[in-house]
């Protein structure tokens, strides 16, 4: 029996917020059935903080007692600054460390006495032995996954957050919005029945001098597939990793996408995101076109080179980036869409802050 199910009646006798609490069986994205007291009142959040707030509403963060802070503050510092300026209490949520950096602390999690620990699939799989200690402490662990970039897992993850926060109707509305956004792209492409353009996508965090990650089955690779592109890296990179520069040249991509963040630590790296001007973003894109051999690539010759925001992937709002990629690949099919505006509109509709900056840009603008 979950230790919280024993304590809950005693707590609820004196706390009015427990009036609607109940044990709910949640099926997570791994197909595991986990019993959780919902709406959850003490949540440790491993990743996807913006999605948790968008789906559960801002008040859901009143119940977040622990946070893997680096996945927000260090990975997306401008976003963290925007949110903490609006809601300073975010900075006071205890940090439990970060899985990838091997600083995640089970001791800190246990000391917070959570109702539930919500982890990304990649975090859950990396923790292994540490999860046994949570199991022994009878702390439920629920897994979601926006990194896979599939319609099924995006929708399932959104519904899980809706159940945990008690915002099932809001979650269904957001899940439906995502599903319709993806299906619109796929139905138009299917009806057009035209050849798939060859495309290459790279995380441009290392600057033009060094090839960084490209993507196969997940993240931008999966999004490129949703957008109807023929991913030149798919035969050579299963998940993510660098590709031989010669392979890019011989594959002759017709469209190139370069993802970037707000980080200015590396000279020439792609700049995208909050407080980045379109002129800055375009200038960095242009720098990549000077790579050896790129002038002869069809994508560069025809100026079909695009900047996309790394922070807009692995999220329920990333259907807007799929639409942007689809519009770049098939401009005539999607001339009526304004994906960057749709990205901002999502914030206006579901989140308490609205970022300003450049989140999608073309070399030819």
Automatic annotation (TrEMBL):
PROSITE patterns: FE_B12_PBP. InterPro entries: ABC_Transporter_SBP, ABC_transptr_periplasmic_BD. This is ABC transporter substrate-binding protein. The keyword Signal applies. Residues 41-337 form the Fe/B12 periplasmic-binding domain. It comes from Vibrio olivae. The keyword Signal applies. Residues 1-21 form the signal peptide. Keywords: Signal. Pfam families: Peripla_BP_2 (PF01497).
């Amino acid at each position: 029996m979950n230790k919280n199910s024993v304590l809950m009646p005693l707590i609820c006798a004196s706390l009015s917020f427990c009036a609607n609490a109940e044990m709910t069986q949640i099926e997570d994205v791994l197909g595991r059935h986990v019993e959780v007291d919902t709406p959850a009142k003490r949540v440790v959040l491993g990743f996807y903080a913006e999605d948790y707030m968008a789906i559960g509403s801002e008040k859901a963060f009143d119940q977040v007692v622990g946070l893997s802070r680096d996945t927000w503050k260090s990975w997306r510092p401008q976003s963290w600054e925007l949110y903490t300026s609006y809601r300073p209490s975010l900075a006071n949520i205890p940090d439990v460390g970060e899985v990838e950096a091997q600083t995640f602390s089970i001791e800190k999690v246990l000391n917070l006495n959570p109702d539930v620990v919500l982890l990304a699939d990649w975090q859950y799989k990396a923790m292994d032995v540490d999860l046994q200690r949570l199991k022994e402490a009878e702390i439920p662990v629920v897994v979601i996954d926006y990194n896979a970039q599939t319609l099924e897992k995006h929708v399932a993850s959104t519904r899980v957050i809706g159940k945990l926060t008690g915002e099932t109707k809001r979650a269904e509305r957001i899940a439906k919005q995502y599903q319709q956004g993806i299906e619109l792209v796929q139905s138009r492409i299917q009806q057009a029945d035209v050849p798939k353009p060859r495309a290459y996508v790279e995380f441009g965090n290392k600057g033009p001098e060094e090839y960084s990650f490209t993507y196969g089955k997940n993240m931008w690779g999966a999004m490129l597939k949703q957008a109807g592109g023929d991913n030149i890296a798919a035969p050579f990179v299963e998940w993510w990793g660098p590709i031989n520069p010669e392979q890019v040249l011989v594959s002759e991509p017709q469209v190139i996408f370069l993802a970037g963040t707000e980080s200015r630590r590396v000279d020439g790296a792609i700049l995208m995101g909050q407080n980045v001007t379109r002129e800055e973003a375009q200038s960095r894109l242009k720098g990549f076109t000077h790579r050896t051999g790129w002038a002869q690539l069809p994508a560069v010759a025809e100026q079909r080179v695009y900047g996309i925001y790394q922070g807009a992937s692995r999220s329920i709002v990333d259907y807007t980036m799929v639409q942007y990629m689809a519009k770049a690949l098939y401009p005539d099919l999607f001339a009526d869409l304004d994906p960057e505006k749709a990205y901002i509109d999502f914030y206006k509709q579901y989140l308490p802050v609205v970022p300003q900056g450049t989140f999608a840009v073309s070399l030819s603008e």
